[in-house]
Known about the structure:
- Helix content is 33%, strand content 30%.
- The longest helix has 24 residues, at 323-346.
- Mean pLDDT is 85; it is low at 146-177.
- It contains 11 helices and 16 strands.
Amino acid sequence: MNDFQEIADRVEIEALRGEFTDAAMMRDRARLAALFTPDGVLRMPNVPVELIGREEIRTGGERLQSQWDFFVQNSHPGTIRIDGDTATGRTYMQEIARLRDGRSGLNFAIYHDTYRRTPEGWKFAERVYEVRYADTTPLGGSAPGPDARASGSDKAGEVGRAPGAGEADASATGAADDFSAPASAERLDRAIAALRANGFTAELLDDAAAARARVKDLIPEGAGVFTGASETLRLSGIVQDIETGDRYQAIRPRVLKMDRATESDRIRRLVATPDVFVASVAAVTETGSLVIASGSGSQLPASAGGAARAIWVVGAQKVVPDLSTALRRVEEHALSLETARAQAAYGQPSAVNRLLVLNAEPKPGCGTVLLLREAIGF
């Protein structure tokens, strides 16, 4: 092997190790699993965990990561020894984490690696995680945000005091200026569990990028797709994915070109009964209900059951304790933002002329909620 090839191999292996840390930090289990060979193994004897094959690594990672309140992993390059189409190496780790049960700690560890060259590039054939130092002293710091634990009194960290730490969850108090704050991990979990109990398919995703990729997975090519007017869909890029190109039969661009006077009946049927309806909602309750507000009502039939399948992409700030708080969120928060948008776009304010509350999904598999850990949209 020439020197240039070995340099290229080292660069690719180092990138592979960096990709692992990024996928772990971003909670992208599918990407993390794809970094392994199909028969790759992830071993953590100190946990203890042994995951064999990409599917076990993906689902095992989901189980581990579902326990996190927060997790930070720093990786430091170690050795790489290349021998043809295989290589070995070590990566040195420093990690801090807090689990949802309150346990926390700091550790230093080593990944003992075996790599294999594949048609897809270098992959992990095996990663063995060895803890060298563990400190379970409760962490004094916090993750930024309204639900983080305070790190000290009379400091900036006080704004992040956690529920149960002496103050109520701020976004559960109903204050209007709290309706833009992302819900805590515990409240997101409660909403997901309640939605599933009520018959919805509900998934908790990290961010808008993850939702954008998931929507592509959920919609078959060639489907007739109607996108609701939504800042969430616009900001995430989902509208662009659906309404440009020829992957789907996008309904909204089509109806915008139709004559309202002569084709109103055709427009009504197109938007009411698409193959797939993709939109957002004004609020999700921790009891598992969706609240949708509309000025014209044109988008409500698809959500109410007219679409063969509906997908709602929802930011974490839209989670509220109950229906009464959801209605306040509509009136006190979302309406003013939508009015500003409508005034700029159409020269007239918005109004809450129609309200739809979905308390359950009677047809399993027809309604999917993609709930994000980050705030996006109104």
